[in-house]
Design a protein that fits this description.
The chain has 445 residues and is mainly α. The protein has one domain. 69% of the residues lie in helices and 1% in strands. The chain has 22 helices and two strands. A two-stranded antiparallel sheet has the order 1-2. Helix 1 packs parallel to helix 8, helix 4 runs antiparallel to helix 7 and helix 17 crosses helix 18. The termini are close together. Keywords: Ligase, Membrane, Transmembrane, Transmembrane helix.
Length: 445
């Protein structure tokens, strides 16, 4: 009954949620659509199915929202004046006679409220996906795969240098052309494609186990291989260094998922890897320097990478705002205050390029504690799930565990979770981990 609504919510989030803070209208569209779908879901879902959602899911949803909500509560001037890093705010408001007004913990309530709305959408996806059974989750993983493949259509337009085309989705930011698909950030697009590769293997595995596809070795290998050929090449064309380096991890995960059909021997594996390396080397030697593939590979030069300096400056700014933090979504104004004059350049620093460091700056110790609690619940979910779930569900659990690892690892050097699309993917993965026993027999069709 409710599965089509959940599938639609995931598809909308993935397709239109990749704009980031520079494109608020698509994000608002996603927030409204997900809210409407969640209202319909709440109306349609049977009471027994609603009650079956584990408490851990509600706890994670609460932890996602509690910090930005608390940051928006108005505080008396005696309290917020004493918070670290607020003297500049006090002095600025004193110029217009408003220094003694009640103010929230967040230094920019509008930005924090915008972040809260995005997190509410992710929390709704989390709860809705946790309510559906194993067959519904197969559809959800299939939707992730299909939307990622569809994102390659605008990607072709982008690589052909047509930024003004209606298929380009988001305007190019200048510089060398990189594949972005439905994401404004090519690094986020790489994560979407990597997760889709895992979903391809898990989806085909589920279809065979449910007798929708015939249990034939070359059919499974062929379908996964065709999807991989498109998705892996697209990952390289995004120019995402971390995305490219995570390709072996994802391929290893796929091999584990479809291992029963591979019947691998070490000799065959060695020959296959040698063949792939030879083809890659030959292709590299004949490519012109201006080709999209060469442009992507050239990004592995670290000569002009500013991330280490951004991390240093972000950590300094975070220390000035501890223990309370500056407020969710306030990285840019706070970073600009504390950025050393000698580090100022003609480039715009929009993120810390490390989600964990940015969380420390914006949410302080409370955000770190909330994140740590969520991580612990997910680890417990992985252990319990792999031990207690039926064999047919373990493929899904393994897939979403690796997907979260991909997003978590990339968060060390970028900001994938600031994309509503990837936040939604992370939410659906968490939902499957936190309710591993769900199956059609529990909830009906």
């Amino acid at each position: 009954m409710v599965t089509p609504l959940v599938v639609f919510a995931v598809a909308i989030t993935m397709t239109f949620g990749g704009g980031g803070i520079g494109h608020p209208l698509p994000e608002l569209f996603v927030q409204i659509c997900v809210a409407v779908i969640a209202a319909l879901w709440l109306w349609k879902i049977p009471e027994s199915q609603f009650r079956a959602i584990p408490k851990a899911v509600w706890v994670v949803g609460f932890l996602l929202l509690v910090v930005p909500l608390v940051q928006l509560v108005p505080l008396p001037p005696q309290v917020w004046h004493s918070l670290p890093g607020r003297q500049i705010e006090v002095d600025s408001l004193a110029l217009i006679g408003r220094a003694d007004t009640w103010r929230p913990l967040s230094m920019d309530p509008a930005l924090s409220f915008s972040s809260l709305l995005s997190m509410v959408s992710a929390a709704m996806v989390l709860v809705m996906v946790a309510s559906i059974g194993r067959s519904g989750r197969t559809l959800v993983l299939g939707v992730v795969l299909v939307v990622a493949l569809l994102s390659l259509v605008p990607a072709v337009v982008q690589l052909n240098g047509a930024p003004d085309s209606i298929f380009a989705i988001y305007p190019a930011n200048g510089g060398k052309v990189r594949l972005r698909g439905f994401q404004n950030n090519p690094n986020s697009q790489a994560d979407v494609l990597l997760v889709a590769m895992l979903c391809a293997a898990a989806f085909m595995r589920d279809l065979v186990q449910r007798h929708i596809l015939p249990d034939q070795r070359w059919l499974v290998i062929g379908l996964v291989g065709v999807a991989d050929l498109a998705l892996a090449l697209a990952v390289v064309l995004t120019g995402s260094r971390t995305g490219i380096m995570m390709l072996p991890l994802v391929v290893a995960g796929q091999i584990a998922l479809i291992r029963p059909w591979l019947k691998l021997r070490w000799a065959n594996l060695f020959i296959s890897l040698a063949g792939v390396c030879a083809i890659a080397a030959g292709t590299y030697s004949f490519l012109p320097d201006t080709s999209p593939l060469m442009v992507a590979l050239d990004r592995f030069s670290l000569d002009h990478d500013t991330r280490p300096q951004i991390w240093t400056n972000s950590l300094y700014a975070a220390r000035q705002m501890l223990p309370a933090g500056a407020g969710m979504g306030t990285f840019v104004p706070v970073f600009n205050i504390y950025e050393p004059a000698e580090a100022v350049a003609d480039t715009y620093v929009n993120r810390a390029h490390n989600d964990y460091l940015e969380l420390l700056l914006e949410a302080g110790y409370a955000g770190v504690i909330a994140f740590g609690a969520i991580a612990i619940l997910l680890v417990v979910g992985v252990v319990k799930g792999l031990m207690a779930a039926d064999k047919r569900s373990r493929g899904q659990l393994f897939c979403v565990t690796l997907a979260l690892c991909v997003i978590g690892l990339h968060s060390l050097v970028d900001y994938p979770l600031r994309s509503m699309s990837l936040a939604g993917i992370a939410a659906l993965c968490a939902a499957i981990l936190l309710n591993p026993k769900a199956n059609p027999a529990d909830y009906g069709k």
